[in-house]
Amino acid sequence: GIQVEQSPPDLILQEGANSTLRCNFSDSVNNLQWFHQNPWGQLINLFYIPSGTKQNGRLSATTVATERYSLLYISSSQTTDSGVYFCAVGPWGGGFKTIFGAGTRLFVKA
Amino acid sequence: GAGVSQSPRYKVAKRGQDVALRCDPISGHVSLFWYQQALGQGPEFLTYFQNEAQLDKSGLPSDRFFAERPEGSVSTLKIQRTQQEDSAVYLCASSLALTNEKLFFGSGTQLSVL
Q1: Domains of chain B, residue spans
Q2: Domain that holds residue A38
Q3: pLDDT value of position B107
């Protein structure tokens, strides 16, 4: 099946710093989503981005489907950005499954 | 409702007990998914409903796991004869469309089997 790899696995930032999280996937996908799981376990949908670039405040994401990767940019990080960021893909021909990566664990220090 | 609601938030079961976990999706959402998340890992797909039809149950780990959505709204995930390896967070997600696009997740049920 499709493999979803996220990097880095762990990231510690000083408040105000910028960061880039990467998601590589091994096969063609028909959708890609980025999620933030906060310290209380709630998964929040950040972006639905099968291709192209989207921005939402301090967050933006880019997916290059032909090269099988997506990037999530966090600018001017805040302590509330801490948590785990997941990339999740829907493989072509994979029915309705969404396959999650292992996540990037982010801690933002005050 | 405003979001996906799951209950109970926490469940402790003795090994061998049966448990039932409830999911109330966003009103009007056609698609409903169940995921299992082990500690420190990403969610793993269990099963998918489109309205009341269970279209994919390939992720259910054993025949002890059973899910239903009889009226196309509320769903229940039932685990029979629970085992310690069933301990995990069980997440429910819903989507407006007939696909797995733009998933909205509930807060999950944390199941601990002693």
Answers
A1: 5-113
A2: 4-109
A3: 94
Please tell me what DSSP assigns to residue A81. G
CB contact under 8 A, A97 and B45: yes
Mutation choice for B interface testing from A43, A47, A49, A89 by most B CBs within 10 A: A43
CB B54 within 8 A of CB B67: yes
Q: Which tens digits make up the pLDDT trace of A19-64?
A: 999 999 999 998 899 999 998 889 999 999 999 999 999 999 999 9
The domain total for chain A is 1
Q: What is the mean pLDDT of chain A?
A: 94
Superfamily of domain B5-113 in the CATH hierarchy: Immunoglobulins (2.60.40.10)
Which range has the worst mean pLDDT, A5-9, A18-22, A59-63, B1-5? B1-5
What Cα–Cα distance (Å) separates residue A86 from each residue in B1, B13, B16?
25, 29, 33
Distance from CA of B88 to the nearest CA of A (A): 12
A72/A36 Cα distance (integer angstroms): 11
Query: For an interface test with B, which of A29, A96, A100, A104 has the most B Cβ atoms less than 10 Å from its Cβ?
Result: A96
